[in-house]
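Researcher: Quick one. two chains, 223 residues in total.
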Amino acid sequence: GENVEQHPSTLSVQEGDSAVIKCTYSDSASNYFPWYKQELGKGPQLIIDIRSNVGEKKDQRIAVTLNKTAKHFSLHITETQPEDSAVYFCADTLGYALNFGKGTSLLVTP
Amino acid sequence: KAGVTQTPRYLIKTRGQQVTLSCSPISGHRSVSWYQQTPGQGLQFLFEYFSETQRNKGNFPGRFSGRQFSNSRSEMNVSTLELGDSALYLCASTGLSDTGELFFGEGSRLTVL
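Model:
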């Protein structure tokens, strides 16, 4: 991948609300799009991913959607909880590596 | 199963010095990659090793180098340190199942004074 644009850079929601983070990629050859969550003082951890042959994937409160035509993919978190507060990174593939967006700092307030 | 272990966790160096960081991947994982994380640039790919061979390299100057040993442990070295090298250096390993998931360590926090 080349550049991955991620928005917003910060997001504050109330507990129970939904949160949406959006990413745009530029390399049409990209075929794998993971999302990582990084808590304070820890390394990033994969929370969900999607491949280019699928339009949507869901895992409990987390879902990812992919629009290959528009080169957009989004992370949706429903019924947010305070423990969802963290920095979230989207990424696309760069050979044997990942090309990360700049991150979204999500704050869920009780 | 133990996770990815990085040492040291914190270190302080002065400009012009060099530093070596170590990474022990998850047992059985043969691919190790390194990323630099800074507030301004986010997570940037440094290099990736598989079976002691560098397969991919990011856009960093030659002062950044790495290697992988036969037991899959990896080291990265930064020579002639600059203030801008202050960052969290993250190592990640991947298994043969090739799901694409990177398992990250907690990182080595380097401060250059």
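The first strand of chain B starts at residue 5 and ends at 7.
Researcher: Thanks, that's what I needed.
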